[in-house]
Amino acid sequence: MEKQSQREVKKEQWKEMAKVWASYLPPAKPSKNEIKFWEKELKKLPIKKGISFKALVLGSTPEFRDLLSKYKVDTTFVDINSDSARAMTSLLKLPKNPREKFVLSDWLHMPFAKNSFDLVLSDSAQDNIKYSEFKPFFKNIFSILKPKGLWFFGAVNVKKKDLLTFEQYINLYKKSPKIFKDQRNYWLNFFRLCYNSEFYDKKTKTYNFKKVNNKIKELIKDGVLPKKAIKDIGFGLDYQQVLISEQDFKKIIKKYFEVDDEYQDKSHLAMKIKWTAILKPKK
User: ∠ at Cα 124 (118, 125), nearest 5°?
Assistant: First the structure.
């Protein structure tokens, strides 16, 4: 009975992951316009049947995998969590790509030879590794990408001119709580807090969501905010996200990559915190 119970718990874990991802809106995941931007470039590449062309997805992002499935691209997706891979696979909108395979691994120690891939796709992948590992991470991608390959790259990017203080964040909620009912406005404003010294560690480049929650809880305790505020403007998990600016990204990657193209999705104000680009290896 105990073993059966453990299996049931595991089953529910991946189902919950799928439910959460399905509920997310951009910029928490790639937008339709971002996918169209990358698709336009993909169609220029030699992806026709009979030509050797290999793509690598960092993570299990269903939006990327559907894009590659549409053109039946030979695809490998790499995730450190098999539950996540199963969850995201359940969200694919197109029939599963028969030329797709899954590799269980972290992104710093992937079992691929030099120049293995023509294309790499990722959206905020680097947010899931330590800042101290950024350089080896980018070096590793440079190594496994062919000299004429491309990297479809997405990252959260909050400009300093758009930052909010915690007081401004709370006042915005108190004045217009309905704004936060649109999940995209929530993501926009929650991330506009990111570089505040109360929540951001300059050494590790991490934005500490729990510290935001704790400040909100204090205001609820003091009667400044209603109890539902923690759900409305807090974050449900004890999580720390690595965040750096677009300018800092460009400084880090300049040894290995250059920007081939960039795109700004203007479908919603929240998308201004995304940097969407196509990178190419430096010669």
Answer: 60
